[in-house]
Write a sequence for this structure.
């Protein structure tokens, strides 16, 4: 804080406050528009950031995938430890994805470059992006359930300089290229990542030249302080106390009774918040592990300033308690291919803990998973006249699910998880244009929203049929037993399921294909979870229930059974008298078990 | 009979600019917009102008009816017909939440409810081949059902109709036969580009606003005919062109964002007249500043946008002049946030109550108040002196709300407010130039809108833009630009193939079909073949990328069958835009695009009288103005634009005033008055 006490002209401060995030945002735009894989251009599974030489976050783009929030400091600090402050030269490009420090699945590849001014190392520009393939046992998302160590997962790149002082290390680049399945795509993405870093260097050069080192350092320190103060002001209004909640994920091992516990404690004291994750599961033999604070960070950010930018100050007033060996602080070489799957549930659980303290804010649980991800891949030996002929193909899409009801509104339907902001599904026409697949159906899953005064949003059912042989993987994100919970008397939403059907078979079978070889005309279907309800469903405005029935979000029988609303099937008019009587009877039947 | 009238209906004012092609006379009139019945305001404005509509040979109209209908949700009860299995595509959208950390985010609210969405039994594949033939009986039954549902409009968007419109056409026939009274939109008639959600959203919006826009245009046509008008009636489009009312009734979605484009067209024309090719149009009004790039005298076009903002808006895949808008206008409010940081905007006082200095009850200090406090805006000159400004009030508001809390002098606080607004507008200018790979030093900044010329020189200095141009009528520039808008129609066909496999004959015939379609439409709108011009583009990308870049090609490029030439053009554009290219990687074509123009007769201003001597300093009046140093006001000459002569030079610091705008020159700026009337400012030329 010492720097920030220095007198700083408020106008320059405001100009820099806008200019620094603008650099990160421009990096993101360029990366997205030039990238070669849908994980970047559609899913926006990347982040772009500027960090100082101490690994403090100066600015990060907002958008895409939120579980990357403020998680790059450890990568930069590790690199500076490795090479020393004097160990970088202009023109260096470093690559890393090593789980020892980076703590995510190996597909998330960091590329960063040092920025110098006045001959001294000032900061780093960095882009972390999801490569479509990193070698190992499988492509896409499908390694998560297959691997039990990082070597099975793929190439491990540990702070390697692929360019030194502007000169590429062709051997390393060739080694990478030869050991991944879609080298054109990944090398293209690498090029885009480097270009985004270079763009940042140019823009930083302009800013530093114009305002000078001292002013910029003072402004950055001040921006951190002010961001921290803003967060503290929000936390100050939350009643002091210790708030706890728990939930769990489906069993991830052979013992089907062993669920994965998620227990959180939130301690609010004045304007300090501590999120204690120490009672969450120990690190797993499965690949659900990670090294990340993202669960706590996303929850805190959503409470303290969801629409503001992210910098080092955003989390300075938050303390996260987590011990080595925790599922989210796993030690190398724990498998991390399924690293992100725990996070949406952790965030939901933190919010659940805070529901008594923030009754007008906390929503019911959402689908709680990273959504129904669908992967289909293979090669084109001969695929008629279609444009992709002769090339390998890979289809990836993420189908959203339902969000929880809120204290003042229904949950939204068919949206990506709390960890995936601007992530978009793949359009039906794009899928069919690029891969030998027909999308039979993409529809809302009627009845999947948890009943409540404010209903949970609906999940999705998406069904596809492959026209030629290939391999399907549908992710099971592990929230089938602990379905999205209701809050304040609301009920749970429908859990998720996956299905497959062989050619000629009449019925779908519930299963989770993982790299499952599928003959032509096989079909798969994901059925994503609905959100939990908020508040007592018997308090839901009958007119809204009628609307839900008209729109087929809720069946007429469910309107009666869950909401106590009687609707005339012919006229679609609410029978007010019958409704009042039914609701009174349902309340009476609850007796002492009133929610 | 050579009068051209442009009538622009904005949120606050209905603005008329007319030009007499024979005499060069310009007429202007302004009156309040009458939202309850726009025709009242139109009639009033026409009356005020004193022009006889019967003597006009062209009447060009820009209106906000389509956009307001969409935003206020006052459109038709609309039904949607889709492919089997796809009923919820419109509701599901892309499933994204642009506000990543917002637990209370809201999705766009569909314009068609689910119970008015029906699946047709049919299916095509991505090559346009039929997998399941359209069940015509089923389609008829659906159309009959719609009659009972009290529907007024129907949108049809079937999967892969971009590749083969046959099923949509057949479904459209069924609707026409069973329910001819419905307003009908078929997706392929609006755009033939893949991505079903975006195409559905566009088609639905078109159907939703269609009936109301059609009624409005019918009323207006009647009003014109009643006034004896026999000339050509044209409607402004979002793409910067114009079209006939008949076309506008069919594709009203094309008029959605036509509001701000007039000024940008005029900026493009002004630079053309001055012999320049590239410009950045900068329009600063009361609530926002808008910036757009003009290359080769054509405004940059984006292929899509969102109605209602990117976070929760509805996508419209239709060409629109690419405008970057920031919340920095004259009425933008300066404030101090909860941790003591000085902020400007995005909240604005708008026209009412307006800045403190307007004395209409405004209490919050604004950018305009800062300009008044520094003497940059003259208290007695505003709107030609019709509205005296309250300098003391402006200074007091800045003192109480900004200067004291920050421990600054009033002048330093006012200068700070302007600098922050300038920085934000500079970021916008940057985002259309530097961020897209263009060096702003190669561009002229064309400044208009009430507040544009006052701030342009500072923005130009910030970004090293050498020249600022203040055109004629900067305060009426949007309506003025409409006078100049050519007829324009855009077409797209997805043609998805590796460049190496592209069939030049097929591409040529697709382009020829689009040319034919464009030529027929232009002919129906009264254009002769010699007025028509066609531009061809390929959307290309490296194989594996998603976002294509529009690459302009020549009809001869296709005839030459030169793949290397096409890809080199693409490589070059990619390199300029993103700073890298991949010359060894395969390139693919995604879409073919065609723009059909119908050139209209130009309005030519009479030249200004030349002065004898090159430099005439008319220093009748001087005023102390704070420029760069808050503590040292500088004495500046005040010029009246009406009295300037062609070729006249003015050295800064100086102020040029005119009816609806003020131009500010700094000490090292030099102004030259073009004989065609524009003010050409060389920024930072030095004494």
């Amino acid at each position: 804080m010492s720097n920030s006490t220095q007198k700083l002209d408020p106008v320059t401060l405001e100009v820099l406050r806008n200019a620094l995030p603008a650099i990160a945002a421009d990096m993101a735009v360029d990366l997205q528009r030039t990238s070669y894989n849908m994980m970047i251009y559609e899913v926006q599974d990347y982040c772009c950031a500027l960090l100082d030489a101490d690994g403090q976050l100066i600015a990060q783009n907002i958008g895409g995938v939120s579980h990357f929030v403020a998680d790059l400091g450890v990568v930069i600090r590790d690199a500076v430890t490795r090479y020393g402050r004097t160990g970088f030269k202009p023109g260096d490009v470093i690559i890393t994805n090593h789980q020892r420090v980076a703590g995510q699945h190996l597909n998330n590849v960091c590329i960063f470059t040092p920025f110098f001014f006045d001959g001294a190392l000032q900061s780093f520009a960095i882009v972390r992006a999801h490569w479509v393939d990193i070698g190992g046992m499988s492509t896409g998302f499908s390694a998560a359930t297959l691997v039990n160590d990082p070597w099975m997962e793929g190439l491990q790149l540990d702070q390697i300089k692929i360019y030194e002082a502007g000169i590429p290390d062709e051997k390393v680049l060739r080694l990478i290229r030869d050991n991944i399945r879609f080298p054109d795509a990944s090398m293209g993405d690498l090029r885009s990542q480097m270009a985004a870093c270079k763009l940042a260097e140019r823009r930083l050069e302009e800013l530093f030249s114009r305002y000078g080192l001292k002013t910029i350092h003072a402004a950055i320190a001040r921006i951190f302080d002010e961001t921290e103060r803003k967060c503290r002001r929000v936390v100050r209004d939350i009643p002091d106390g210790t708030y706890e909640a728990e939930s769990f994920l489906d069993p991830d091992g052979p013992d089907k009774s062993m669920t994965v516990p998620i227990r959180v404690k939130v301690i609010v004291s004045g304007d300090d918040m501590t999120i204690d994750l120490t009672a969450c599961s120990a690190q797993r033999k499965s690949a659900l592990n990670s090294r990340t604070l993202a669960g706590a960070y996303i929850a805190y950010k959503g409470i303290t300033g969801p629409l503001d930018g992210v910098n080092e100050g955003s989390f300075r007033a938050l303390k996260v308690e987590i011990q080595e060996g925790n599922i989210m602080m796993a030690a190398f070489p724990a498998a991390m291919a399924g690293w992100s799957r725990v996070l949406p549930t952790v965030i939901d659980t933190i919010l659940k803990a805070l529901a008594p303290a923030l009754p007008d804010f906390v929503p019911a649980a959402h689908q709680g998973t990273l959504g129904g991800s669908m992967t289909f891949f293979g090669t084109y030996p001969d695929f008629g006249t279609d444009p992709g002929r002769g090339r390998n193909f890979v289809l990836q899409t993420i189908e959203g699910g339902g969000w929880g009801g809120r204290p003042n509104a229904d949950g939204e339907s068919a949206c990506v998880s709390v960890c995936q902001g601007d992530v978009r599904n793949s359009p039906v026409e794009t899928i069919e244009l690029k891969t030998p697949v027909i999308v039979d159906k993409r529809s809302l899953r009627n009845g999947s929203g948890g009943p409540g005064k404010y209903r949970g949003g609906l999940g999705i059912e998406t069904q596809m049929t492959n026209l030629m042989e290939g391999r399907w993987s549908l992710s099971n994100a592990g929230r089938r037993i602990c379905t999205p919970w209701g809050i304040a008397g609301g009920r749970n939403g429908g859990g998720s399921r996956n299905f497959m059907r062989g050619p000629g078979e009449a019925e779908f079978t519930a299963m989770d294909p993982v790299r499952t070889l599928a003959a032509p005309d096989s079909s798969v279907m994901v059925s994503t979870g609905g959100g939990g309800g908020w508040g007592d469903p018997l308090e839901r405005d009958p007119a809204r229930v009628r609307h839900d029935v008209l729109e087929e979000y809720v069946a007429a029988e469910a309107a009666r059974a869950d909401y106590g609303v009687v609707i005339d099937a012919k006229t679609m008019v609410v029978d007010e008298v019958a409704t009042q009587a039914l609701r009174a009877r349902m309340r009476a039947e609850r007796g002492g078990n009133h929610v | 009979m050579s009068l051209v009238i442009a009538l622009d209906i904005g949120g606050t004012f209905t603005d008329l600019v007319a030009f007499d092609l024979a005499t060069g006379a310009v007429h202007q009139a302004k009156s309040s917009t009458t939202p309850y019945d726009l025709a009242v305001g139109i009639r009033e404005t026409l009356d005020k102008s004193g022009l006889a509509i019967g003597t006009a040979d062209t009447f060009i109209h820009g209106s906000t009816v389509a956009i307001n209908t969409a935003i206020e949700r006052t459109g038709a009860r609309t039904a949607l017909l889709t492919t089997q299995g796809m009923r919820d595509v419109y509701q599901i959208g892309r499933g994204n939440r642009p506000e990543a950390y917002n637990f209370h985010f809201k999705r766009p609210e569909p314009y068609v409810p689910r119970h008015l969405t029906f699946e047709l039994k049919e299916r095509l594949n991505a090559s346009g081949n039929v997998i399941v033939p359209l069940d015509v009986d089923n389609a008829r039954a659906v159309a009959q059902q719609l009659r009972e549902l009290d529907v007024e409009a129907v949108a049809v968007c079937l999967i892969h109709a971009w590749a083969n419109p046959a099923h949509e056409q057949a479904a459209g026939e069924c609707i026409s036969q069973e329910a001819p009274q419905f307003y009908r939109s078929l997706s392929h008639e609006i755009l033939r580009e893949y991505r079903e959600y975006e195409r559905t959203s566009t088609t639905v919006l078109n159907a939703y606003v269609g009936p109301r826009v059609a009624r409005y245009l019918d009323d207006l046509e009647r009003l014109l005919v009643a006034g004896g008008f026999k000339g050509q009636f044209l409607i402004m489009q979002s793409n910067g062109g114009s079209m006939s009312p008949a076309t506008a009734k069919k594709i009203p979605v094309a008029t959605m964002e036509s509001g701000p484009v007039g000024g940008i067209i005029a900026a493009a024309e002004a630079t053309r007249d001055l012999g320049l090719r590239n410009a950045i149009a900068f329009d600063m009004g009361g609530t926002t500043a808008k910036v757009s790039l003009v290359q080769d005298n054509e405004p940059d076009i984006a292929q899509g946008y969102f109605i209602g903002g990117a976070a929760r808006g509805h996508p419209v895949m239709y060409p629109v002049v690419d405008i970057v808008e920031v919340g920095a206008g004259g009425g933008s409010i300066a404030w101090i946030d909860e941790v003591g940081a000085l902020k400007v905007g995005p909240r604005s006082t708008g026209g009412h109550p307006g800045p403190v200095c307007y004395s209409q009850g405004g209490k919050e200090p604004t950018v305009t108040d800062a300009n008044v406090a520094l003497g940059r805006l003259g208290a007695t000159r505003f709107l030609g002196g019709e509205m005296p400004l309250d300098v003391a009030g402006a200074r007091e508001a800045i003192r109480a709300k900004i200067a004291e809390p920050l421990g600054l002098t009033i002048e330093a606080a006012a200068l700070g407010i302007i600098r922050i607004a300038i920085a934000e507008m500079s970021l916008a200018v940057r985002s259309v130039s530097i961020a897209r790979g263009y060096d702003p030093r190669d561009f002229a900044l064309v400044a208009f809108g009430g507040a544009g010329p006052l701030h342009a020189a500072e923005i130009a200095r910030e970004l090293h833009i050498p020249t600022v141009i203040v055109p004629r009528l900067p305060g009426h520039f949007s309506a003025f630009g409409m006078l100049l808008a050519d007829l324009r129609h855009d077409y797209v066909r997805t043609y998805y193939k590796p460049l190496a496999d592209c069939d030049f004959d097929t591409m040529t015939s697709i382009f020829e079909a689009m040319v034919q379609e464009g030529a027929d439409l232009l002919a129906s709108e009264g254009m002769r073949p010699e007025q028509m011009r066609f531009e061809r583009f390929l959307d290309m990308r490296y194989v594996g990328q998603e976002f294509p870049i529009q690459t302009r090609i020549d009809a001869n490029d296709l005839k030459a069958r030169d793949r290397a030439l096409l890809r080199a053009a693409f490589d070059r554009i990619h390199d300029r835009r993103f700073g890298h290219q991949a010359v060894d990687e395969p390139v693919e074509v995604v879409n073919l695009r065609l723009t059909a123009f119908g050139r209209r007769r130009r309005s030519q201003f009479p030249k200004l009288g030349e002065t004898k001597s090159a430099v005439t300093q008319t220093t009748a009046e001087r005023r102390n103005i704070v420029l760069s140093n808050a503590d040292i006001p500088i004495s500046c000459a005040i010029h009246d634009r009406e009295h300037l002569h062609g070729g006249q030079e003015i050295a800064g610091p100086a102020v040029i005033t005119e009816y609806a705008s003020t131009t500010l020159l700094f000490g090292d700026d030099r102004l030259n008055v073009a004989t065609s009337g524009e003010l050409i400012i060389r920024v930072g030329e030095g004494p």
About this structure: The first helix of chain B runs from residue 38 to 49. Chain B touches chain A through 72 residues (CB under 8 Å). Residues 611-616 of chain B have pLDDT under 50 and may be disordered.
